[in-house]
Here is the input.
Amino acid sequence: MSQHQVSYQNSNNQILIGSELLRQFVYCPKIPYFRHVLNIRPPTTIKMDKGNEKYDQLRKILILYQEKIKKRLPPEIVHLQEGYTNLRIFNDNLGLAAQVDIFIPLPYDTFTQYVLEHFTNAVKILKYFEVMYGSPNTVGQIVEVKFRVSPPQSQKVAAHHKIQLAFQALLLQHHFNLPVLLGTVHFLPNHSEQFTLLYPQDIAKVVKIIRKLRYHLVTEDPPEPTPHPAKCTNCEFRRYCHHA
Here is the structure.
């Protein structure tokens, strides 16, 4: 069982929910049901093997991001806070766990530069964050690494990936006591990127989805499948699902 999918229970007898499990639930609610209620374990796929391969490259990718940050820093800032790779976070009170590919404490001035470069309505966005958080010295950036062909540059971060990033942000904010505002999906092998901002309403949405997922796991009530049949084509559970 994956470290960041689902464990058994925390000290409050809650089912422990992980970020990858939540991402799968958003992609298709049937996947966690097959995997953790019916206990179906399909054979390992090439896609899974490539997913494991990425962890060998996380440190190299972190260094790439830190070099970019250093180029943006004013000369009076000499040292960066340490970044983290393959970071495992567990919150017993929330009954949640996550394995974060890369987490970077980002100087706030560098964060504002990212926003100005990559997002429309940047000034409005920054004013909103200042109202919510003031002007913190440091904010968090999450980098999720995907070993796959990158989508078109114009395409937004997929909904299930954004939910995964927001879930990780929820845990990281509790652990490091700083706002986690920037999510990045980094695609290998061509090192392209997609950026997304993480708002309080994204965290609130994650909390609602966690409750819904936990309901289906506890009651074993089968959820409805994805409304998008195209997702079924390469699904590892296709042979078990009468909706496919």
User: Anything to note?
Assistant: Strands lie at 6-9, 15-18, 84-91, 96-107, 138-147, 180-188, 192-197.
